[in-house]
Each structure stands twice: as C-alpha cells, then as structure tokens.
Write a structure and sequence with these properties.
Blueprint lengths: L23 H21 L3 H18 L4
Helix pairs in contact: 1-2
Length: about 70
C-alpha cells in the first residue's frame, strides 16, 4: 500500500467503540491509505470505472486530511 503513518481503528473496531478515538486527520489518512491500495487492485484487474470512482474518493480523503480536526 501507500507509505503513510495511518493506523487502523484500535482492535479493528469503529472509532465509536472502546479505545481511543481517531482524529479527523488520522481517519482521513487511514481511509486514503486503504483507498490507494484498492485503486491499484481495481486498475490491475482492468476495472477502469471502479478505479476512477475509488480515485475520486481518494482525492476527497486527501482533501479531508488538511481540513478541520
């Protein structure tokens, strides 16, 4: 996947469950890292429209990394 310091939610749980909540930026970084890998999977599997949609979501996640926290 992409090289970020993003971390998944604690114990695979959603941030609303027990454990420390992710900040807005941490969540956006994690989502962006996951989407980057998914985009590559879609591209390698010759799924151009799906890769495009994932890329749109990736751009939004990258925008959110710099937004409010």
């Amino acid at each position: 996947m992409t090289g970020t310091r993003a971390r998944p939610p604690a114990s695979g749980a959603s941030p609303s469950r027990e454990g420390p909540e992710l900040t807005h930026q941490e969540a956006a970084e994690y989502i962006a890292s996951m989407l980057g890998g998914l985009r590559l999977v879609a591209q390698n599997a010759q799924m151009p429209f799906l890769a495009y949609l994932i890329n749109v979501a990736l751009e939004e996640a990258n925008n959110e990394k710099t937004n409010r926290d």
